[in-house]
Specification:
Elements: H1 2-21, E1 26-29, H2 32-39, E2 47-51, E3 54-58, E4 60-63, E5 73-78, E6 83-86, E7 93-96, E8 99-104, E9 107-110, E10 120-122, E11 126-132, E12 135-139, E13 142-146, E14 150-157, E15 160-164, E16 167-171, E17 179-181, E18 184-186, E19 189-193, E20 205-207, E21 215-217, E22 220-224, E23 232-234, E24 249-252, E25 255-266, E26 270-273, E27 276-286, E28 297-300, E29 303-305, E30 310-314, E31 324-327, E32 330-332, E33 339-343, E34 350-352, E35 354-357, E36 359-361, E37 367-369, E38 377-379, E39 391-393, E40 467-468, E41 479-486, E42 490-498, E43 503-512, E44 515-522, E45 529-539, E46 544-553
Parallel strand pairs: 1-2, 1-44, 2-5, 3-6, 4-7, 5-8, 6-9, 7-10, 8-11, 9-12, 10-13, 11-14, 12-15, 13-16, 14-17, 14-18, 15-19, 16-20, 18-21, 19-22, 20-23, 21-24, 22-25, 23-25, 24-26, 25-27, 26-28, 27-29, 27-30, 28-31, 29-32, 30-33, 31-34, 32-35, 33-36, 35-37
Antiparallel strand pairs: 38-39, 40-41, 41-44, 42-43, 42-45, 45-46
Length: about 550
């Protein structure tokens, strides 16, 4: 019995020591060398804050880095959007078997010397990776690329992806099958992907292979796609295994314009709703990719305006072109001689209550003419700075309460508000709007990214007082680390001075949230001697501290 108690006590001590050793830490870095050293050592709950500036990071490989559902690994810009510059013939940030990791408020670019370079690329299957308020610009291949067996629960939110030579976002590949599932791309601004819109290939967003349950929602895309490639292209070829409409990919609430081919292109297994497409060759095209049909395609409540060839095009080969539900869409062409609606090989597809201005074939009685000359639409546009895109039905429009509920309807309209349902619903991408509420609009911070610092500190307890801990190592040779904590959001100034009181370094001068932080001090260019670290902090509540600690530098 006594022996068992000893083992129990030892076991509890081991657990306590282990728990103590996995304390999450926030690191603040301000050099490319520190970024490269620290970023590959992050563990669950750790945060890496990068101060504003430009950093030549070469290429970074993140291998086997795993956070958890409660303790994400966070890599984030501090008080600005630091620019991380790739300068090797490798992709800038390589993600290899990682999970629960967030990249926030960073700009990723390359120095332009190297061709065929991705901004972010997945090197092996990974999951729960988020890109939030990042800029991925001037990339010579793909902004965010994945051609690995599987990625899932990947999120791209409030990002700007621009001037990528090939594709903005490219996930999945059909041969051999590479899958993206349960991923989301939302509230992002994607443009000039590919950089040269006269080239044949390239997409704004491309999701291929047997990908399923992905969401592309509420994005703005313009000047995207090649001459034979779409602004948004979504392929779904894995129709085996009992996949149903519940496994559909969703393309919802996007604005797409100025596209040299299709605005939106999809094959099978997709719900396309509440989008507006303007100034493309083909507005929305449903056409089976090699080896697929158009099974489980739902096309509803979209607005297509002023396209150069065809508005909404449904087609296929052989028995393809079947199994579509196409209801409550509006296609208006400036040129009445252009085809607004066209369907081929429709088979057992269901078409109902689609409005058009221009030519129509293959929709039979499922289409109704409308006339923009009679003010069927109000054209505002100025609120979005997108000419002609702020389209919504006028109060007395025949599009109000004209749709069918027979085959389901989008729960939300283009304003992300619940649809008003009576005996019928409004058609097109908009519910009724007014001059005060002119349809979907970009959020105020859409292009000017929010730089509010909100850190994930894992399971760290909030400090009860400010403190500057002893640096380590001490004495030190070349560099040392300073650990400090603050109990509430404060403006923090951390400096180093010599024996004469002369400031030799400012390590941080910024507002920080409550928490524990670690900052590197590199003294390699200073003479051997005694130095002092000074921590000053002041909160909005008027609480202030002034703490100093001696540093011993020995070369």
């Amino acid at each position: 019995m006594f022996k068992n108690r000893i083992y129990l006590i030892l076991g509890l001590l081991e657990i306590l020591l282990f728990s103590y050793n996995i304390r999450a830490t926030t690191y603040i870095v301000n050099s490319a060398n520190e970024i490269n050293n620290r970023i590959t050592q992050l563990n669950a709950g750790d945060s890496l804050l990068i101060t504003n500036g430009e950093y030549d990071i070469g290429a970074i490989w993140l291998q086997n880095r795993h956070g958890s559902e409660q303790d994400w690994i966070v890599i984030k810009g501090l008080e600005g959007i630091p620019k991380l510059i790739g300068s090797k013939y490798e992709n800038v940030i390589n993600i290899d078997n990682c999970s629960y990791m967030k990249f926030e408020q960073l700009e990723i670019t390359i120095d332009g010397t190297y061709q065929g370079i991705d901004g972010f690329t997945f090197r092996s299957s990974s999951h729960h990776i988020e890109f939030v308020k990042c800029r991925i610009i001037n990339i010579t291949n793909v902004g965010i690329n994945s051609q690995v067996p599987e990625i899932h629960h990947i999120a791209v939110r409030e990002c700007e992806i621009a001037y990528c030579s090939e594709v903005g976002i490219y996930w999945g590949y059909p041969d051999p099958l590479k899958v993206a599932r349960d991923c989301i791309i939302e509230n992002s601004y994607i443009h000039h992907c590919p950089t040269d819109s006269t080239q044949e290939t390239g997409y704004g967003i491309q999701i291929k292979g047997g990908s399923y349950r992905n969401i592309v929602r509420d994005n703005v895309l313009h000047t995207v796609g090649g001459t034979t490639r779409a602004g948004i292209g979504l392929y779904y070829t894995n129709l085996s295994g009992g996949m149903s409409v519940e496994d559909n990919n969703i393309i919802s609430g996007n604005i797409v314009w100025n596209v040299p081919a299709e605005g939106i292109y999809a094959a099978a297994g997709v719900t396309i709703e509440n989008n507006i497409v303007y100034d493309a060759v083909w507005g929305i095209e449903i056409y089976p990719y090699t080896g697929s049909t158009t099974e489980n395609v739902i096309l509803q409540n979209n607005t297509v305006y002023n396209c150069r060839d065809e508005g909404i095009f449904i087609s296929g080969w052989g028995a393809a072109g079947n199994d579509c539900i196409v209801i409550n869409n509006v296609a208006v062409m400036d040129d009445v001689n252009k085809m607004a609606l066209i369907a081929k090989s429709r088979g057992n597809a269901i078409f109902a209550n689609n409005y058009y201005f221009g030519g129509m074939t293959g929709f039979d009685q499922a289409a109704k003419p409308c006339n923009p000359a009679d003010m069927e639409f109000i054209k505002a546009g100025g609120n979005l700075s997108i000419p002609g895109l702020d389209l919504y039905p006028k109060n007395n429009s025949t599009l109000i309460n004209s749709g069918t509920r027979a085959f389901g309807y989008p729960e939300y309209d283009f304003n992300r508000e619940k649809r008003k349902i009576s005996d019928s619903i409004d058609v097109g991408a908009y519910e009724f709007s007014t001059s005060e509420n002119p349809g979907w609009q970009l959020s105020k911070g859409f292009k000017i990214l929010d730089i509010e610092t909100k850190l994930n500190h894992g399971n760290l307890n909030q400090p009860v007082k400010s403190h500057l801990f002893k640096n380590y190592p001490n004495p030190f040779n070349s560099e040392t680390w300073l650990l400090f904590q603050i109990p509430e959001r404060s403006h923090v100034n951390l400096t180093v001075s010599n024996l004469l009181g002369q400031r030799v370094a400012t390590l941080i001068n910024a507002e920080l949230p409550a928490g524990e932080f670690e900052m590197n001090f590199d003294a390699s260019e200073l003479p051997t001697g005694i130095y002092f670290a000074h921590l000053k902090s002041e909160s909005k509540n008027g609480n202030s501290v002034d703490i100093s600690r001696r540093l011993v530098y020995l070369k």
